[in-house]
Sequence to fold (701 residues):
Amino acid sequence: MTLTREQCFEQLLLGKAVKSEGWLEQIRLEALEHAEAMNFPSARHDDWRFTDLSPLFLHGFHPVDSFARLTLSDIEKFLIPGAIRLVFIDGCYAAELSDLTQAGSGITVASLVECFGGGCSRDGRSGDHLVEENFGRHAPYKQDAFVALNTNFFEDGAWVSVASELAEPIHLLHVATRREVPSAIYPRCMVVMESSSRATVVEDYVGLDDGIYFSNAVTEVVLKEHAQLQHVRVQREEKNAFHVGHCSVESGRDSVYSAISVALGARLSRHTLHVTQQGEGAEMHLDGLALIAGRQIADTHTRIDHAVPRGKSVQLHKCIADGSAHAIFSGKIMVHAGAVGTDSVQSSRNLLLSDKARIDTQPQLEIFNDDVSCKHGATVGQIDADALFFLKSRGFSEERARNLLTHAFAAEIIDKIPVPSLVESLGRAILERISGACT
Amino acid sequence: MINKGSKVLLEVKNLKAEVAGVAGVAGAEILKGVDLTVRAGEVHAIMGINGSGKSTFSKVLAGHPDYTVTGGKATFEGKDLFSLAPEQRARAGIFLAFQYPVEIPGVSNSALLRLAYNTLQTERGLEELDPLEFDDLVQEKIKVVEMDPSFLGRSVNEGFSGGEKKRNEILQMAVLEPKLAILDETDSGLDIDALRIVAKGVKSLLSSDNAVVMVTHYQRLLNYIVPDYVHVMDGGRIVRTGGKELALELEARGYDWLRAAA
Fold:
């Protein structure tokens, strides 16, 4: 079946209506209204000009009407020992697979549906009130068709609010299953870091059994003053899946936001990360890695808005493309007129492993005041011939030397993830991927 | 130490090589007929001015892809050297210490050493060492080059000073225990203390079973590691071979008298 762009989008609009109450219903209806006036972006859209969405239109995606039952053993290989865990299966909360035993005082980790019902109060404040204050206020459902679809159709999602310092990581595991017809699923996350809180949150998108599905995810993150968040995002969807994710972040005064985004899976994926510096002195670290092969397409778009003084942003994004894969990076840093004393460094480094692979990279700086220190740069290269010969002269075979160098290129990003078991499992996945691509 | 009865490790006869040509254009010939025989237990020095071909010679022996062998032959322990890929030469026991050691961000020194060591162990039919066992071994070897153990956890040569990089090459040599080590200007860019440490390290690795070929511009390394043979290269050939006194003569008189004679 091949659909037109319009037909594919209309099919999504026929999704299952999810009923809510009050303010949330209002947001859902507004989002639907906007979605109905929109369509998938075409290559004429500036933010999508490198990304060919046409593989998506080969399928009509259907709403998920019944939820798969999984056991812990089905998802065992994805688990992070010791983590606080929320599991979602095809967008629906799976309480029996989740583990909240480590969540102590000052921490709320719950399903959004529970919170909408007022079921996750904290420190005398109604949970519903906190959610209402934040939910849907950051991701642009009026401008972005994917965000609009998610905001109307999301079934459930993760609510994380942290008011203390938390050592254990919070693992938000979104599992997509194989279904009889291609399915559309809408993962949703909201993270609120209260003043001076600290936590590590891992958003993890995985698939089972080689399913074909369209995962359209939206995440909103708020950091209040002096909060520190390590925000890991792993996209390891099934190889025939489609993944579009949007994350909006607002960082408050003297907060530190560190994002590490890794894209390994999916036939076609797009991740948009938009960080707005709301408070003076906020620090933002954005690290990203896309490692793809075969016919995969992975697109990462980031934007950092320095809106107020003394902001600092450091970004390193890497793409590794093998086979006839196509990786795209576009990173825009906007330094607004009032954002004096901004310190920003952006770097895009890329590795092409085959003649047919393609990488488009577009680092962009737009500066509207003079009192700043900003640098950016991009490189695209192949495996370094000197390093390759050096390793061979130490006894490594050509293949092993290439794998080691490719792995090392990726490791610079992976090793920043503050969760050792995840570093290890991603390292293994990358090695398998690299050596698989060689054969 | 010269022992005419000891085993021949490397035998090079009339070796010619050029820079690998690009797109059908022939490269320039750099080696124009080199002869060299190295026996177990020997220390050789190859000296010469810049552009004489001495660095090219060491790279050709290790199998560097930038050069094409156009004539002559070389055997290593009787095997045709040029039929072996660079990694096969390494596994056979040839080691090149690089003039400009390569930085490899993301690969730790200890991982590199362990993976390389285990590759050779497998080649020799011996058991691989796990990271803990290997750590014991490498802690011993690191003393040879007086290196701080913290260097093991760092990415290969990344952020190392010139001297630290050269010491790191010798550490690799110490771990891999080659039969033939070719040191390509290992002394260049070293201050006097680093030179002493590197030389002491190399010296401690010498035995009657292995051999070293030192490619160098200056005589000063030879004060620490006394060569059995000194060869002078010029214009892509070895134009003079002598004992250690030849190096002293070069130091005193320069290279011009030899070039004129050639």
